[in-house]
């Protein structure tokens, strides 16, 4: 009781408050440092991410072409969007692309990752891993350029070999019925190694004893894959599916470089429609409505994946 | 359980043709698998081999069929042609400026924020951390239009800064480095505190070196992502002397529509060199980053 009566050394001002040579003073200094350290990130995120998301919502209720002042439209942009066949085609193409590309990618990547678990020389494993991951190092633009040349209907290498072994050639990029499948193949070539690495990461978290013991116990082939590997790997598969869908719904680079959306609108993705509406036609408000719808769809699909995952993902 | 025993006993008796037979049976499956992997790897690598060998072909030969898989002409003039058709030297420089600034900037902002969220306590920390996490899933498309408007208001249209500045804050990097900082035992800090070091020195001298692997992961991911970026440069940049390499290649492809594809492919090969070098030295970090969901998404 006596001790509290002893007066603390009296200093004043914010500097003294902060520099107090006590545990409280130290906690204050740590707190101040905390704020200073998160400031660049928080400020940046508010200015370049959080703020703009809200702004996109706001802009979607206006007509604005940059040159004239914005005019409030209410829901008119949305009404127009739901009656706009071109926007619908963009969403439809992106959706079909995602379903095909992501399911193929996950299946093939999983098989590759499992195959690479087998006993083989170290250099072999290294070679395979590098070979499968190499296309991922290319930019989407470079990938589009290279594969567009190789898939050229008349002069392309691929059709040359098809002709050589007596198969009919394919109009890879200039048939509206084929072009989206071609884009799926292109993205598969570029990203299957990426997904394979994700699967390898998931497999490395499962103890090899569990995987191999089940195999020794007589679970082989499909039984082993279906009853042991898939449940154990399900969190990784969910993860690959979620980031695959978010990325896939925004595909732009490869189809833009290869076809500019053609022939017709056959390979026009929703981001291509958004890009042209916003930055070519300068319809900022209308393009914002497209962006908002895409954002909402991505959120809904992601949420659905997580909700459905409760039925099939196995966390131990 | 009973069925398992029966079936495995059955299979042993069926294949019971001595150890040699078993050896062949066991290994033939393995060799078949390796053969399959090898065939697939040929499909995966073929476009890159074709790109390199065609980039060295004379214009007259560049569309020649059947394709030759080995470079035969050694037409290195295709490579100098790239620099004559487009301002490629300037574009390489631009790509390096944007990429290195983004990598260094992200390392600074993310290591500071990651450290603060992992190791410091201050009122509102959890709320701020959730703000960062909430933006992790926001797609680029949901922000690109307002960011484009901001960039023009700042007077940064058609500058490299328009690519660098919005890329500096990184929710993923902050999350990633926070994980690394959290794994470091508190004892390190206590020892330094006893030695009389202040908080900032502790961050710089004690913690930062200990999270070097995390910094490497973020650096490699940011390098690859920024070097290959196409969409934001396409939206923000107008003049070809301000372009980064992927935009330049797209340009080159347009100019060369009727000309030689060898020149375009020479540009592609040149664009690959830095990422291949980074891959050779940092593949461990690239894979670790991919497993943590660093690219795409």
Structural notes for this entry:
The complex is a heterodimer of chains A (316) and B (297). With 316 residues, chain A is an all-alpha fold. Helices cover 73% and strands 1% of the residues of chain A. Chain A starts with a helix and ends with a helix. Chain B is mainly alpha-helical. In chain B, helix 4 packs across helix 8 (171-182). The two termini of chain B are 44 Å apart. The model of chain B is unreliable at 1-16 (pLDDT under 50). At the A-B interface, helix 3, helix 6, helix 7, helix 8 and helix 9 of A face helix 1, helix 2, helix 4, helix 5 and helix 6 of B.
Give the secondary structure arrangement, pairings included.
The complex is a heterodimer of chains A (316) and B (297).
Chain A: H1 2-5, H2 14-19, H3 23-59, E1 62-63, E2 71-72, H4 76-82, H5 85-115, H6 122-137, H7 140-150, H8 157-164, H9 179-204, H10 208-216, H11 221-248, H12 253-259, H13 270-280, H14 284-312
Antiparallel strand pairs in A: 1-2
Chain B: H1 2-14, H2 18-55, H3 77-85, H4 88-119, H5 125-136, H6 144-153, H7 161-164, H8 171-182, H9 187-194, H10 199-210, H11 212-227, H12 231-236, H13 245-255, H14 261-291
Helix pairs in contact in B: 2-14, 3-14, 4-8, 4-11, 5-8, 8-11, 9-10, 11-14, 13-14
């Amino acid at each position: 009781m006596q001790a509290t009566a002893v007066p603390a050394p009296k200093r004043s001002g914010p500097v003294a408050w902060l520099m107090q040579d006590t545990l409280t003073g130290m906690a204050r200094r740590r707190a101040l440092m905390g704020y200073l350290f998160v400031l660049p990130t928080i400020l940046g995120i508010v200015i370049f991410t959080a703020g703009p998301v809200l702004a996109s919502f706001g802009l979607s209720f206006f007509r604005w072409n940059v040159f004239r002042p914005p005019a409030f439209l209410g829901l008119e942009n949305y009404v127009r969007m739901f009656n706009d066949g071109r926007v619908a085609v963009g969403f439809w193409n992106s959706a079909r692309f995602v379903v095909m590309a992501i399911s193929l990618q996950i299946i093939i990547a999983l098989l590759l990752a499992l195959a690479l678990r087998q006993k083989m020389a170290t250099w072999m494993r290294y070679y395979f891993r590098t070979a499968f991951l190499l296309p991922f190092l290319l930019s989407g633009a470079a990938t589009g350029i290279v594969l567009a040349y190789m898939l050229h209907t008349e002069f392309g290498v691929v059709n040359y070999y098809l002709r050589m072994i007596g198969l009919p050639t394919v109009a890879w990029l200039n048939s509206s019925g084929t072009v989206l499948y071609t884009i799926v193949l292109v993205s598969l070539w570029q990203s299957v190694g990426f997904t394979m690495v994700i699967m390898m990461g998931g497999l490395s978290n499962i103890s090899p004893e569990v995987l191999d013991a089940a195999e020794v116990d007589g679970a082989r082939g499909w039984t082993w894959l279906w009853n042991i590997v898939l449940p154990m790997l399900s969190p990784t598969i969910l993860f690959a599916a979620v980031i695959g869908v978010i990325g896939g719904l925004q595909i732009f680079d490869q189809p833009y470089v290869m076809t500019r959306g053609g022939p017709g609108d056959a390979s026009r993705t929703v981001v291509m429609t958004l890009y042209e509406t916003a930055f070519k036609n300068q319809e900022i408000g209308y393009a914002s409505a497209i962006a908002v719808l895409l954002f909402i769809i991505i959120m809904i699909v992601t949420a659905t994946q997580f909700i459905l995952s409760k039925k099939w993902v196995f966390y131990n | 359980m009973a069925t398992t025993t029966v079936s495995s006993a059955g299979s042993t008796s069926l294949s019971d043709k001595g150890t040699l037979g078993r050896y062949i049976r066991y290994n033939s499956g393995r060799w078949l698998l390796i053969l399959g992997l090898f065939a697939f790897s040929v499909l995966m690598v073929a476009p890159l081999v074709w790109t390199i060998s065609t980039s060295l072909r004379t214009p007259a030969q560049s569309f020649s069929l059947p394709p030759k898989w080995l470079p035969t002409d050694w037409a290195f003039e295709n490579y100098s042609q790239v620099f004559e058709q487009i301002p490629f030297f300037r574009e390489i420089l631009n790509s390096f400026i944007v990429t290195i600034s983004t990598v260094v900037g992200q390392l600074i902002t993310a290591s500071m924020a990651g450290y603060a969220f992992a190791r410091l306590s201050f009122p509102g920390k959890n709320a701020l951390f959730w703000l960062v996490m909430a933006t992790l899933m926001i797609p680029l498309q949901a922000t690109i239009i307002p960011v484009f408007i901001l960039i023009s208001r700042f007077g940064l249209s058609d500058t490299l800064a328009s690519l660098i500045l919005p890329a500096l804050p990184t929710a993923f990097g902050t999350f990633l480095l926070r994980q690394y900082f959290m794994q470091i035992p508190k004892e390190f800090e206590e020892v330094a505190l006893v030695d009389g070091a202040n908080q900032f020195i502790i961050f710089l001298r004690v913690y930062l070196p200990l999270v070097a692997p995390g910094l490497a992961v973020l650096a490699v991911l940011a390098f690859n992502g920024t070097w290959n970026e196409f969409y934001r440069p396409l939206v923000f940049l107008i003049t070809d002397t301000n372009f980064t390499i992927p935009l330049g290649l797209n340009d080159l492809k347009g100019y060369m529509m009727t000309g030689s594809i060898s020149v375009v492919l020479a540009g592609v090969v040149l664009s690959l060199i830095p990422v291949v070098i980074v891959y050779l030295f940092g593949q461990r970090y690239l894979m670790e980053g991919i497993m943590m969901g660093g690219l795409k998404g």
